[in-house]
């Protein structure tokens, strides 16, 4: 869907010439587009509020200045909680969250989404051909061996004699699970007369075998027999006992394995639903009540309850599937966290797995935990006032990165290894460069594939850019100070010309700040570091006050209090505030444990790897925790909401400089480590160049996929520089 563009406001008839230039000023102001996937049919076309109409603005101001001419985007949410969440997305310093924090009304969802959550018991009038690539994939992965297991179970049940009815059921299900598409499993009821007859006469055959259905074609194969009680005493029969002891457990294991594999593959979730419903419904019914039929292309209704009816094994839209508001990928990765913690702390001597495997598992576990932390922060902020939301976002917004950085610094301090401090600096620089270049660039490229040109609010991006310039200058001020006043010390020098006054070639040179017992560092550099660490958070608070209180019109957002006709829904939140708080605390605790395992098992990688430690820091350690944010930015860009995609990267970069680094400096005061706010030249040049390039690209308030490609290519060039750079001294 394309977001409707705001119409240009027109001047009144009294002053068309005077209003024309002002109209152009007003049209130049970029509208913050709404989130289509969040709002769906509730997205209103951007309109000019009566209090800020362009004609009155143009009559009251000169042609040169028309700043109050603001075209506002009106967003209508389903409920108050969603309105708060949408508003928080455009607030400086708040996490930009894509998913809903409340349950969306069923009637507001698209037909594609409704199909994802529907049970496999809906019969279509004309489903088309069932021979598809996905169905053939099911046959190759699961169908043949499931059918074979049912054939074996059928033979076993026939051998027991008393389990013969279940043998016939397994034989029918063997054909069904070989190719279940276009077939239906139905529960039929035994007529009361037949139940009474079966209770009185053990050898009588029941009537009604001639029933037929035009939809299914042919007679209905009733399976009840005089020895098969269809009442509540079904499980008292000997055959049922044999079934529960021999057949049912084996089939539960087989279907459970298929269910787990299909669920983990996500696009095969229909197969998982098929097998789960078989375990919980089909296999627990009396065999005489289960009928397997082949559908025909007609619309005559079936007789009896439809238990299973599947047409497709693969649905690519299941990446949208959510369980209690949690995306299916985050659900699937949650067991990985448990495996990581068990292997990390139980197998401390690496008898089961090696250190690189544990390090990889720990990093992968950070991704779902970051998602849960983001979801909890968004839920608490949407259900709380501005002050609580700001505190939660400022406190837990950077908890993922800080837990890793602090545990790495503690381990480096205990071992006396400076390499951990350098890794932390590389990760900080990698997060800054990645969020300035890679995140917005990737969003521009992917969004530009669907939309030829995307526009964003250049004024709000300008505020973030100004804060980013300030923060980068403050962070690297001690480094520049040390370059000017520090003493250059080299580890090894060779005279190239064999002349005492000739040229010397030196290696491993650095600026020594500890000359004369560290007078320069302790008297000049360290006070400068503490001063910068106090000023940067203060600038962050001023930025919050500026953008959220005194100049809210820059972000140009208006949340309407009205709802669409017929849609008066109360907010049914996925997570209450207390539940979100508990999940936030538990996720933070698990995050700390995974960060501890990652730093514990990174040593072999740093010592044995031929790759530069700079490269490991700026790529793996920097970008893996930001993957949920990158996914959010891509989804916003696909919905033509590039403003939020850009703000995601800018917000993370600003938090790195204005919150994370000052917190690390404050931590070193109470727990001395090797971390100093003096970066290498490579970090300084890469960060400065990235910020300048980002501001140049965002200057005009519009972009396309080519500009995004430029940002991504520059990012990869910097990665190549880090890849071939020698490891920092001390590593």
Automatic annotation (TrEMBL):
GO terms for cellular component: endomembrane system; vacuolar membrane. It is found in: Endomembrane system. Gene3D superfamilies: NCX, central ion-binding region. Residues 357-476, 580-722 form the Sodium/calcium exchanger membrane region domain. The chain crosses the membrane at residues 136-159, 241-269, 326-347, 359-380, 386-406, 427-449, 461-481, 528-548, 578-598, 644-670, 682-699, 705-725. GO terms for molecular function: calcium:proton antiporter activity. The keyword Membrane applies. This is VNX1 protein. Keywords: Antiport, Calcium, Calcium transport, Ion transport, Membrane, Phosphoprotein, Transmembrane, Transmembrane helix, Transport. One of its GO terms (biological process) is intracellular calcium ion homeostasis. Residues 133-183 form the Inner membrane component domain. InterPro entries: CaH_exchang, NaCa_Exmemb, NCX_ion-bd_dom_sf, YccF. Pfam families: Na_Ca_ex, YccF. It comes from Rissa tridactyla (Black-legged kittiwake). It is a multi-pass membrane protein.
């Amino acid at each position: 869907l394309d977001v409707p563009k705001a119409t240009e406001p027109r001047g009144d008839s009294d002053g068309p010439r005077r209003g024309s230039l002002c109209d152009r000023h007003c049209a130049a102001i970029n509208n913050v587009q709404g989130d289509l996937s969040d709002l769906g049919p509730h997205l209103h076309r951007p309109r000019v509020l009566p209090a800020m109409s362009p004609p009155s603005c143009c009559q009251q101001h000169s042609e040169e200045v028309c700043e109050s001419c603001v075209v506002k985007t009106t967003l209508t949410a389903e409920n108050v909680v969603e309105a708060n969440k949408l508003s928080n997305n455009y607030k400086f310093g708040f996490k930009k969250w894509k998913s809903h924090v409340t349950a969306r009304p069923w009637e507001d969802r698209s037909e594609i989404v409704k199909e994802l959550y529907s049970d496999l018991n809906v019969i279509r009038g004309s489903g088309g051909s069932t021979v598809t690539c996905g169905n053939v994939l099911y046959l190759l992965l699961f169908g043949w061996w499931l059918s074979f297991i049912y054939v074996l179970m059928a033979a076993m049940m026939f051998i027991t004699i008393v389990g013969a009815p279940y043998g016939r059921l397994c034989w029918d299900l063997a054909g069904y699970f070989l190719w279940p598409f276009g077939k239906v499993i139905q529960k039929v009821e035994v007529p009361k007369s037949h139940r009474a007859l079966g209770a009185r006469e053990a050898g009588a055959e029941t009537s009604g075998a001639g029933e037929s259905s035009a939809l299914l074609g042919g007679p209905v194969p009733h399976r009840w027999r005089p020895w098969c009680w269809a009442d509540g005493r079904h499980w008292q029969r000997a055959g049922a006992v044999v079934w529960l002891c021999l057949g049912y457990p084996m089939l539960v294991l087989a279907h459970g394995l298929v269910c787990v594999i299909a669920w983990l593959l996500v696009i095969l979730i229909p197969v998982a639903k098929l097998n789960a419903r078989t375990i919980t419904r089909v296999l627990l019914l009396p065999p005489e009540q289960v009928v397997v039929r082949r559908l025909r292309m007609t619309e005559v209704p079936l007789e009896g309850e439809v238990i299973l009816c599947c047409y497709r094994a693969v649905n690519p839209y299941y990446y949208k599937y959510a369980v209690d508001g949690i995306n299916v990928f985050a659900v699937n990765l949650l067991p990985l966290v448990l495996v990581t913690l068990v292997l990390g702390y139980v197998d401390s001597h690496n008898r089961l797995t090696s250190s690189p495997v544990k390090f990889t598992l720990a990093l992968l576990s950070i991704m779902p935990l970051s998602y849960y932390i983001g979801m909890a922060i968004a839920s608490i902020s949407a259900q709380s006032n501005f002050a609580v939301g700001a505190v939660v976002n400022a406190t837990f917004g950077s908890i993922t990165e800080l837990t890793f950085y602090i545990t790495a610094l503690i381990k480096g301090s205990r071992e006396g290894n400076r390499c951990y401090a350098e890794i932390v600096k590389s990760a900080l620089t990698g997060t800054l460069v990645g969020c300035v270049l890679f995140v917005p660039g990737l969003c521009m490229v992917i969004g530009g594939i669907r939309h030829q040109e995307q526009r964003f609010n250049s004024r709000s991006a300008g505020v973030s850019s100004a804060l980013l310039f300030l923060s980068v200058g403050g962070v690297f001020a001690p480094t520049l100070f040390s370059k000017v006043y520090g003493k250059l010390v080299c580890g090894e020098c060779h005279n190239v010309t064999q002349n005492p006054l000739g040229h010397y070639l030196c290696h491993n040179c650095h600026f020594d700040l500890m000359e004369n017992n560290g007078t320069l560092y302790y008297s000049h550099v360290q006070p400068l570091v503490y001063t910068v660490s106090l000023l940067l958070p203060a600038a962050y608070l001023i930025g919050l006050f500026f953008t959220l209180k005194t100049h809210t019109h820059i972000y140009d957002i208006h949340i309407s209090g009205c709802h669409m006709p017929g849609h008066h829904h109360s907010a049914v939140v996925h997570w209450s505030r207390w539940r979100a708080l508990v999940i936030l605390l538990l996720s933070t605790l698990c995050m700390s444990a995974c960060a501890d395992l990652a730093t514990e098992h990174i040593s072999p990688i740093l010592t044995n790897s031929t790759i530069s430690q700079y490269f490991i820091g700026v790529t793996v350690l920097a970008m893996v925790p930001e993957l949920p944010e990158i996914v959010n930015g891509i989804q916003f860009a696909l919905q033509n909401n590039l403003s939020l995609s850009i703000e995601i990267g800018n917000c993370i970069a600003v938090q790195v400089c204005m919150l994370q680094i000052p917190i690390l400096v404050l931590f070193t005061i109470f727990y001395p480590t090797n971390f100093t706010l003096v970066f290498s030249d490579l970090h300084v040049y890469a960060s400065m160049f990235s910020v300048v390039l980002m501001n140049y690209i965002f200057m005009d308030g519009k972009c396309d996929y080519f500009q995004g490609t430029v940002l991504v290519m520059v990012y990869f060039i910097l990665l190549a520089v880090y890849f071939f750079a020698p490891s920092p001294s001390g590593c």
